[in-house]
Design brief:
With 176 residues, the chain is an alpha+beta fold. The protein folds into two domains: 123 residues; 39 residues, no CATH class. Helix content is 15%, strand content 36%. It has three helices and nine strands. Strands 2, 3, 4, 5, 6, 7 and 8 form a seven-stranded antiparallel sheet that branches. A two-stranded antiparallel sheet has the order 1-9. Strand 3 and strand 4 form a beta hairpin. The longest helix has 11 residues. The chain is elongated, with a radius of gyration of 26 Å.
């Protein structure tokens, strides 16, 4: 969804509340795409302050289906979205800051791209680790069985490859 800023930029001390919904049903993060489970509308508040700055504010939350980092089962995570931007305005146009790059504004700085704003906020609030539960056992590195469901019985002892020769020697003399 794009919001045309022409009207709000041309009227000093004006406030607009815009109902927004996300157009995308999936969130793309690198090569992975995650399903957006809730797509409820939210309100963005746009305020032209004396023709000198534009304030953009809004809050919502997004629920995504993300695989557990250990067992790969889908987990529902909730990411808070807090949009809070101030743009300098001059002659009814947004003046970009020299050191800022706005991926959520069109090239002419006349429209806000709501999906891009929300995407940036999701990236900032992305959790470091996603687990289905704190004591998740993960998957077996040998057979791929989800160890939360049942134990597979595989020998999962991983030896240091530098010590493999010693293991061979111990196995050789084990028969004696």
């Amino acid at each position: 969804m794009n919001i045309d800023l022409t009207n709000i930029l041309s009227h000093m001390d004006t406030t607009e509340n815009v109902e927004c919904t996300l157009e995308n049903e999936r969130f793309q993060y690198g090569a992975d795409a995650y399903s957006i489970l809730n797509n409820k509308p939210f309100t963005l508040n746009l305020v032209n302050v004396m023709g000198q700055k534009l304030e953009v504010r809004g809050e919502t939350e997004i629920q995504l289906a993300v695989p557990c980092d250990r067992c790969l089962e889908d987990v529902t995570i909730t990411i808070p979205i807090a949009i809070d931007y101030e743009f300098r305005v001059s002659e009814e146009q947004i003046v970009p800051e020299e050191d800022e790059e706005y991926s959520f504004l069109t090239e002419d700085y006349r429209e806000l791209i709501v999906d891009a704003m929300v995407r940036d906020e999701i990236l900032v609030n992305w959790p470091d680790k996603v687990l289905c539960r704190d004591d998740c056992k993960g998957i077996c590195p040998v057979c791929g069985q989800n160890l939360n469901q049942k134990d597979c019985g595989c020998d999962r002892v991983v030896l240091d490859p530098r010590m493999a020769k010693f293991q061979d020697i111990f196995n050789e003399f084990k028969e004696v």
